[in-house]
Design brief:
This protein is of the alpha+beta class and 434 residues long. It contains eight helices and 24 strands. The strands form six sheets. Strands 8-7-6-9-10-11-12 form a seven-stranded mixed sheet. A five-stranded antiparallel sheet has the order 13-18-23-20-21, with no helix packed on it. Strands 14-15-24-19-22 form a five-stranded antiparallel sheet, with no helix packed on it.
Length: 434
């Protein structure tokens, strides 16, 4: 699955969902589905000191299934069989079976396994199906689909990645995957119609060529929405028209090519000198109970005290030994992206309330961040990652307040709340950015 580095979003995210991956290389990015990869400025935690899983089966059993939501036994079985380490660069092999995005070069990422499984499951894949994928990336998503359907047609707009993925897939024996270099907005007319379509970047609206190429009764999973407020939509074609079901909030990079040319200026060109968060007090909720405006919400409880502000509770267990392997605990996090122009904004002030209980930093760290701010340039390349609210132990409510210089090349940012490098529990309330 390929996405312009933002992650972001897109990567994306996120979940994207989303997850922290701290590496010594300093190569930091956000995937299309929210998975965050990279290093924190000043962090002394090395990848060698963090938990390692050595097989896809261990990853699925210990990291993916406990999150809930994965019920298709065929998809689960295939996720256990695909060797994800064959789809990531050698320097990231240790993180291959983490539920996180990983850089694959050319400003792109391989999406977190949970996002891959979730999107695949929404297609309800059948052995006789023909599937169109927009965004080949490393070829991992295509490999998963290839064991579930008859043929996969995958389009990648970044030529070096597309060629590498095609060679990799052929070498691994995934001979029913067909790769083309081109603009995914236009689809693959010669191979249409498709039983299902999976899209890994976000347009303002579903591209009409993809609607036309989707078979009657077919399904499409696609992130749609404004730049920083998007959602997965499961689309079903009925009578030539799409019936759309909103699934969950996500944060993917915008679809490029023709979609970028057509993108409405009032949506995608924002006032980047007036940066602000949506729902920083967590009072607004989605239909599923998650906080509106926040993405890749994982293991977060929203608290509603009678006489105090709303708060978000993040809880994470310590890594455990399972069958001789150290298994990292499930993530507890959420994130939000926003526009930010370093040419006009020289300083950013971040403030939030924080309390904690039994917060223990992972091996190699004295203190642990409770939030992180990530800056990106106009090409969505990560500039720096700044840890906020470093804490440990048990402590009552306090105010985290920090002024952060904004580099002039910054064009957007992501604020991530949670415990990426620690176990324990923290409560966060009244998050403000000025």
């Amino acid at each position: 699955m390929s996405i312009r580095s933002f992650l972001f979003v897109a990567c994306f995210t996120a979940s994207f969902f989303t997850a922290f991956l701290f590496q010594n290389s300093g190569d930091t990015c956000i995937g299309a589905d929210g998975g965050v990869t990279g290093n924190i400025s000043g962090s002394k935690v090395s990848a060698a000191s963090l938990p390692v899983l050595k097989s896809a089966e261990a990853m699925v059993n210990n990291l993916l299934l406990p999150q809930g939501g994965l019920t298709d036994t065929a998809v689960i079985d295939v996720m256990k069989r695909i060797p994800r380490h064959r789809f990531v660069p050698p320097q990231y092999q240790q993180q291959a079976y983490w539920d996180t995005a990983i850089s694959i070069g050319s400003g792109q990422t391989i999406s977190p396994p949970y996002i891959v499984a979730f999107m695949t499951q929404q297609l309800n894949p059948k052995p006789a199906d023909k599937v169109l994928e927009i965004g080949t990336g490393s070829g991992y998503q295509a490999a998963v689909l290839s064991l579930l359907v008859k043929d996969v047609y995958s389009i990648e707009i970044v030529e070096p990645l597309g060629k590498q993925a095609e060679k990799r897939l052929n070498g691994l024996g995934f001979n029913n995957v067909h790769v083309r270099i081109g603009d995914g907005y236009k689809g693959w007319q010669e191979a249409a119609p498709f039983n299902s379509i999976i899209v890994t970047c976000s347009p303002d609206a579903v591209p009409q060529p993809l609607v036309d190429q989707l078979k009657e009764g077919g399904r499409m999973i696609i992130p749609v929405g404004e730049r920083y407020q998007q959602a997965f939509y499961l689309c079903k074609k009925n009578g030539g028209k799409l019936q759309k079901e909103r699934l969950q909030q996500v944060l993917f990079v915008p679809m490029t090519g023709e979609a970028e040319k057509q993108r409405s200026q009032d949506k995608d060109t924002q006032d980047t000198s007036n940066s602000r968060l949506t729902n920083g007090n967590f009072e607004k909720r989605n239909a599923d109970g998650t906080p509106a405006g926040w993405h890749y919400v994982r293991n977060v409880t929203l608290l509603e005290p009678d006489a105090a502000p709303f708060a978000a509770r993040f809880s994470r267990k310590k890594p455990e030994k399972v069958d001789g392997q150290t298994v990292p605990a499930a993530l507890s996090q959420m994130l939000q992206g926003f526009a930010l122009d370093g040419r006009s904004v020289k300083m950013l002030h971040i403030e939030y309330g924080l309390c904690g209980e039994k917060v223990v930093a992972q091996q190699g760290a004295v203190m642990t961040p409770t939030a992180s701010l990530l800056f990106y340039d106009e090409n969505r390349r990560q500039i720096t990652m700044i840890p906020l609210g470093r804490s440990t132990g048990t402590f009552g409510w306090k105010t985290v307040s920090q002024d952060i210089p904004v580099p002039p090349q910054v064009r957007e940012a992501i604020l991530l709340l949670g415990l990426p490098l620690a176990s324990g529990q923290i409560d966060v309330r009244e998050v403000k950015i000025k």
